[in-house]
UniProtKB/TrEMBL annotation:
Telomerase is a ribonucleoprotein enzyme essential for the replication of chromosome termini in most eukaryotes. It elongates telomeres. It is a reverse transcriptase that adds simple sequence repeats to chromosome ends by copying a template sequence within the RNA component of the enzyme. The keyword Glycosyltransferase does not apply. Its main location: nucleus. Keywords: Chromosome, Magnesium, Metal-binding, Nucleotidyltransferase, Nucleus, RNA-directed DNA polymerase, Telomere, Transferase. It holds the Pfam family RVT_1. Belongs to the reverse transcriptase family. Telomerase subfamily. It comes from Mesocestoides corti (Flatworm). It comes from the Eukaryota. This is Telomerase reverse transcriptase.
Amino acid sequence: RFFLLRVDVADCFNNIDHTLLLEVFRKTVKTAMDFSTMPFCPELLISELSSFLSCYIIKLGGQYFMQTKGIPQGACVSVDLANLYLARSDQSGPAKAYFWRSKRKAATHAGRLDATILRFHDDYLCIATSKERLLLVRNALFDGLHKFGLRSNASKETSNIEESDDPIAVDWLGLEITPNLDFLLPTVICGPRTFDRFSGYPLSWRDCLWRLSRYLRSYDYFPLVINQLGAAVNCSVAEVNARRLGQHTARLVIFYVWPCPERHACLASVRRVRRLAEILLYRLAALFDRHSLVLLSRDSLVQCLHQRRSEFRLLLRFLCDPSLILRSGKLPPSKTNLLQKFMDAPGNN
């Protein structure tokens, strides 16, 4: 097993040191000149950044203040500047040997790499083969952050160091990572609706379906998690992800359909509900190769929506009997073949 630690930088944007940032930017621009095919003036870029940092005025309580530390979060370049700053911290700190590089297969000081660090923006994930090594990596990472005026947000640190009968998964970037380095989709609870994403902005039924379809198509990490290395042989991980994907899809249906003022009439329309069921089943079928996982994901979707069966009665009928969609005869062959998975799967009625 592996030991994991998630680290989040506390108030990252507001703690960036201007002097250090300008120094990092100056070195980056110098390096960029050696590779750029487009001529530019490095001094002009540095001067512009200096003006950007020193002339940011904040109005608070009727008074004006000049920001002398940190960068504004709303600026279009702020994320890139923060990444440059953190990258320099990674490369110059005591933990630099642990940061993951795709071309490095083993540590230079040992025959085998026993720890590594991954970073996405200001979220770090430390991985080690022992508790002792993980604590060493953690301390080295913190020392590097402190040199750049940054610190960890202790309230957001999560780890699986503590002994437990049930292995603890660590949340990172919207995924659960197990001690075996398996990826799990996050747990979704389809309880009472507690917020409305489009409150005060009613959407037509067509817009709701368009947004839902676009969201399902653009969710990049679904294929990564579903087809991760070892998922074919690790049935338990694949089944957990199939169930959670069904739960997530159900939450999205509620999330996008509920703000529609036409939903009561549309959810009673055979034609419109058939279209919604087609979108949902098509996306599920496209993600799984195994029939058992296709059915497991669909059944999880149905189970979650069944809690609101008074609203989704007609939709549940189409989801449970995909032949009602196929009988329309208006689907392209590619979609028909995918939806046929629900008909060909063993045990499907």
